[in-house]
Write a structure and sequence with these properties.
The protein is built from 7 helices and 14 strands. By secondary structure, it is of the alpha/beta class.
Length: about 250
């Protein structure tokens, strides 16, 4: 009789499993002695999506041996939270929450920038470049491609299940518990640069007279130079920000 382990996945890690295997203990047969990393690969869960793994209640790394009979519990990525003293599957948590989004998540990238998060996005970056940027710059790779998140060397990744940008940004904020880190209207949604307030007199020749007559506060992107003010678009975006912030589950 082959050896097996009892596997339980928590929170969004269940989305990597078949519907009948979610939110419950699952027995997984082992083909002889193996490791936690091999087990993750076998059940189709990218290591980059797992933050903490417990084997019989003790935290462990990807090279932890499994011989059969163990209970394995997997928990998803935490960024705003620090589950010390548990052992993470990567060297350290990211203290600066920054993202890089794949080519299919352009609207999500703009929403995250709207909320104040440093989010790199270019629609012509290939999978190897995305993974390299995430590793080199300490960014969380956002993707709907599970295979990309399971690539070698990637330490921080988050699978985005929804196809709707509004739902996507809510999922990212909720799953990484980023509510306390929201800094809306501090970044350019076009280029990701930081915004800085500018005097009205400095930009008198750059905007239509009707805008200058109605508004007094202006901000310039320090990256691309784009100007921002609190027009009708601001009111719509402010409502969106408030809605996302209000979606935090009560403690």
């Amino acid at each position: 009789m082959s050896a097996s382990v009892l596997l339980r996945c928590y929170a969004e890690l269940n989305e990597f499993l078949a519907p009948g295997e979610r939110q419950r203990d699952r027995e997984v047969a082992l083909a002889g002695p193996t490791t936690l990393g091999v087990l993750l690969d076998r059940v189709g869960i990218p290591a980059a999506a797992v933050e903490v793994a417990l084997v019989d209640g003790a935290s462990c790394g990807l090279d932890h041996p499994l011989g059969g009979g163990e209970r394995v519990s997997l928990y998803p990525v935490f960024e705003a939270l620090d589950p010390t003293p548990m052992l993470r599957l990567r060297e350290a948590p990211l203290r600066r929450v920054r993202f890089v989004a794949d080519a299919h998540l352009g609207r999500l990238a703009r929403y995250l920038r709207l909320l104040g998060f440093d989010t790199l996005y270019e629609n012509d970056l290939g999978d190897p470049e995305l993974a390299a940027i995430a590793k080199r710059e300490g960014r969380i790779l956002l993707s709907r491609d599970r295979a990309l998140l399971d690539g070698p060397g990637l330490t921080h990744g988050l699978w985005v299940p929804s196809t709707r940008p509004r739902e996507q940004v809510a999922q990212v904020v909720e799953r990484l518990d980023l509510y306390r880190l929201l800094r809306p209207f501090t970044r350019c949604t076009i280029c990701n640069g930081l915004l800085a307030e500018v005097e009205k007199a400095e930009i008198a020749g750059e905007l239509p007279e009707r805008v200058l007559r109605v508004f007094d506060a202006f901000w310039r992107c320090q990256g691309c130079g784009r100007l921002y003010w609190q027009g009708s678009h601001y009111q719509r975006l402010q409502a969106l920000v408030e809605q996302i912030a209000a979606e935090r589950a009560p403690e």
